[in-house]
Amino acid sequence: MNLESPTVNVNKSAEDIFEFLTKVENFEQLMPESKQKFEKISDSRFLFQLKGMPELVLDQKESTCPSQVVLGAASDKLPFTLTADIIDCGDGKSTTKLTFDGQFNAMMSMMIKKPIQNFINTLSQNIEKL
């Protein structure tokens, strides 16, 4: 299952957005209002829970300064990645797009597609507000 957020314009440089997204504690600011739990586990790992969903642990898998940050599920039970692609537009501005890529069976995909799409859209909208 592959889902994408809309590309958003951000009034910060690509480097600033990259720095923000590589600090896992900053993801708490991007979470939807339905966030019930957020906990930084290490400099590259955090746990979060949204209302009605199980707790998820994300690891920073890789990063390419200043254009990409890849997070992935720490558990093999729900294998997925969340990639932020950042493009520098000059003049201290950039664009960001989030891509969710998960390996789920058809039934699971059907159940989680809408909530995941809403989640990445909210993250993207909150990045735009930075």
TrEMBL record:
Designated name of the protein: Orotate phosphoribosyltransferase
Species the sequence originates in: Aquimarina muelleri
